Amino acid sequence: MAPNIAIPFILFIISIITLTTSSHSLLSNEAFLQCLHLKTKTSIKNLSKLLYFPNNNTYSSFLLFSMVNTRFNTISTPKPLLIFTPTQDSHIQGSIICAKNHNLSLRVRSGGHDYEGLSSRSQHPQPFIILDLINLNSVTVNVEHGTAWVQAGATLGEVYYQIANKSSVLGFPAGICPSVGVGGHISGGGMGTMVRKYGLAADNVLDVRLVDVHGRILDKDSMGEDLFWAVRGGGAASFGVVLSWKLRLVPVPQTVTVFAITKSAKEGAVELIDKWQYIAYKLPEELFIEAIVQTVTNGSSRRVEGLFNCLFLGNSSELVRVMGERFPELGVGMKDCKEMSWVQSVLFFGFSQSGLPADSLMDRKLQLQNKGLFKAKSDFVREPVPKDVLERLWSRFMEVERASMFMDPYGGKMAEISESETPFPHRKGTLYNIQYLVGWSDTSSKASKEHIRWIRSLYKQMGPYVSRNPRAAYLNFRDLDLGRNEWRNTSYFKAKVWGVKYFKNNFKRLAFVKGDVDPENFFRNEQSIPPLFL
Ligand SMILES: Cc1cc2nc3c(=O)[nH]c(=O)nc-3n(C[C@H](O)[C@H](O)[C@H](O)COP(=O)(O)OP(=O)(O)OC[C@H]3O[C@@H](n4cnc5c(N)ncnc54)[C@H](O)[C@@H]3O)c2cc1C
Ligand SMILES: *[C@@H]1O[C@H](CO)[C@@H](O)[C@H](O)[C@H]1NC(C)=O
Ligand SMILES: *[C@@H]1O[C@H](CO)[C@@H](O)[C@H](O)[C@H]1NC(C)=O
Ligand SMILES: *[C@@H]1O[C@H](CO)[C@@H](O)[C@H](O)[C@H]1NC(C)=O
Ligand SMILES: *[C@@H]1O[C@H](CO)[C@@H](O)[C@H](O)[C@H]1NC(C)=O
Ligand SMILES: *[C@@H]1O[C@H](CO)[C@@H](O)[C@H](O)[C@H]1NC(C)=O
Ligand SMILES: *[C@@H]1O[C@H](CO)[C@@H](O)[C@H](O)[C@H]1NC(C)=O
Ligand SMILES: *[C@@H]1O[C@H](CO)[C@@H](O)[C@H](O)[C@H]1NC(C)=O
């Protein structure tokens, strides 16, 4: 089932005879295609429709299409030898075998939201190909069992839409941005507005289908406990290619309530965020209030503001009552609250506005319109940040055109799951997660350097007030500043520096799983798990 958007890209047939690229890539391309033909029993003609070679003018636009961080859209960024958009499982099995046979490395791209662009580029000297799963995006909902099978190339928006299409009282607890792909997102954790009630997306995975380094399709039973554990938070890119997930859907009320309240510093934003730190993680699990500090620039005017975005799994009168009791300082009244269906709340958070038609969630092109250049970093907070430190953020944020600090409260279900149950260890004792993000529009390397310097300095400034030993980070907010693997020598001891930030004590178990399932380290990237052997 190809989404509309893919059609213009696949309406062409490539004749390998007319390829005019360098002889090296010509040979690799041709050899790879021949191998794929033999392994998948798909005709060259049919395969050609699914391939993008560098000499075709659709190659660059397709490469860019779901590369969400356009910081990596430069001439000097290493490009893939080809991009393959498989339409069936055997295409993925064949790609792995043929890539190994021809000494190519492989990157898998689902939604393309990786913060460091690791699904679209490779800094390693070995030539690489991209498997883009855009055509593998079916979502099959079973209302009776409260489950769904979703292919790895589906977006969160597609998953949410298809669930709501079948039931108004079922949902799924995953991320806020509808264009994120489930391939990367769920394998890296996945958190959103229902995290306090139902945990992470990865906590609600019942089964998975994955192609391993030998080209075999494994499921929960055949892959064994360790690998099934590893791909639910450890990042699947180190272990294989996820074909699909079986998800446990969760009950949501017919009517939920949202609000979005903005406060300037004069209106007490700093005091409110300070108070929020002490209560947000202790509120009823049905209540999720995200706090945001952000810089808004409009022409020559710039301001920094505090935002409180809320999803409540209940009605507005109940929400006003709870807020009056627990957080009266925010002054939430009926006029601030909007009741709606759960899927409408997804649109409200995803597009920062309400009233859009639900099928906007199916429109990748619409959702990918406002991508751009950015750099992000993350933290976990275990003790409230002092108020004067929060206050100082205002002057820091005035220094840049567009920046945000998203604070997502934990507690509830997150505090009930043990640190080792999945690779994602940031559970009990975590008050909230921070994501720092700075965006800019000037494509010069000078602008890029300046903004990256800014966010690094903000991160340094926050160091004393966030989690320590290790200073923890969230894999899905990938940050290569934390460290990266060397080409070929992916030393466990070197990787531990960043590995324990993402995974704490789970890093070692992940490395043993890696040693077991991919000892030669075929599934490798700048921040993949290094193999460790017993
Ligand atoms: C605008 C925006 C909003 C976001 N909002 C949230 C949010 O609300 N909550 C949250 O938790 N995160 C959020 N994220 C982060 C997001 O969860 C991660 O970037 C996630 O890894 C993206 O998955 P993807 O498939 O879109 O990305 P990709 O770039 O395609 O993949 C990310 C990584 O996973 C690998 N991968 C992808 N598919 C597969 C597969 N099928 N098998 C094996 N490996 C695979 C890739 O090779 C890459 O290493 C957001 C990101 C952006 C850009
Ligand atoms: C490039 O793509 C176009 C349409 O997308 C197709 O008509 C053309 O044959 C392709 N060229 C090559 C060399 O593959
Ligand atoms: C090629 O594609 C056509 C149309 O999609 C299909 O009918 C045919 O079976 C395919 N052949 C091979 C060998 O893949
Ligand atoms: C791949 O690399 C190995 C080891 O470096 C080499 O022996 C082999 O000939 C290469 N294969 C191809 C197809 O280039
Ligand atoms: C569900 O999807 C079908 C087919 O696309 C559509 O006709 C129908 O209106 C949708 N129903 C709801 C409730 O969204
Ligand atoms: C930006 O400023 C202009 C002129 O002052 C105003 O009309 C417009 O609504 C502002 N846009 C936003 C997004 O605030
Ligand atoms: C709102 O929810 C509360 C708690 O569930 C319930 O007691 C109350 O009757 C509901 N009010 C309305 C107007 O539905
Ligand atoms: C790999 O890196 C480790 C740690 O830096 C080092 O001890 C080891 O000698 C390196 N191995 C090779 C083959 O370069």
- Counted by DSSP, the helix tally is 18
Q: Could you tell me the radius of gyration in angstroms?
A: 23 Å
Fold-level CATH name of the domain at 256-350 and 375-465: Vanillyl-alcohol Oxidase, Chain A, domain 3
* Amount of helix: 25-40%
Q: What's the end-to-end separation, in Å?
A: 43 Å
Class from secondary-structure proportions: alpha+beta
Tell me the β content: 15-25%
Overall pLDDT confidence? 93
Major beta-sheet overview: 7 strands, antiparallel
The CATH architecture name of the domain at 256-350 and 375-465 reads 3-Layer(aba) Sandwich
Structure description:
The chain is an alpha+beta fold and 534 residues long. Among the domains are: 2-132, 2-Layer Sandwich (Uridine Diphospho-n-acetylenolpyruvylglucosamine Reductase, domain 2), CATH 3.30.43; 256-350 and 375-465, Vanillyl-alcohol Oxidase, Chain A, domain 3, CATH 3.40.462.20. The protein has 18 helices and 18 strands. It has helices at 7-10, 23-40, 44-48, 57-65, 89-101, 156-166, 182-187, 195-198, 220-223, 225-230, 269-279, 316-326, 342-351, 364-367, 387-397, 445-462, 492-503, 506-517; strands at residues 51-52, 83-84, 105-109, 128-132, 139-142, 147-151, 170-171, 205-211, 217-218, 241-248, 250-251, 256-264, 287-298, 301-312, 338-340, 373-381, 402-409, 432-440. The strands form four sheets. The protein has a seven-stranded antiparallel beta sheet with strand order 15-12-14-13-17-18-16. A five-stranded antiparallel beta sheet has the order 5-6-10-8-9. It binds flavin-adenine dinucleotide and 2-acetamido-2-deoxy-beta-D-glucopyranose (7 copies). One 2-acetamido-2-deoxy-beta-D-glucopyranose binds at residues 11-14, 18, 55-56, 58. Residues 298-299 line the site of one 2-acetamido-2-deoxy-beta-D-glucopyranose.
